[in-house]
Write a structure and sequence with these properties.
- By secondary structure, the chain is mainly alpha-helical.
């Protein structure tokens, strides 16, 4: 995997975690 792919995957995971922990923000 490239650094770009890792960054995109990490961002997606953080976004999903954020949407689960703070549903009122999304």
């Amino acid at each position: 995997m490239t650094w770009v792919a890792l960054a995109v995957a990490a961002g997606l995971v953080l976004y999903l975690l954020g949407s689960l922990l703070f549903p009122e923000r999304f």
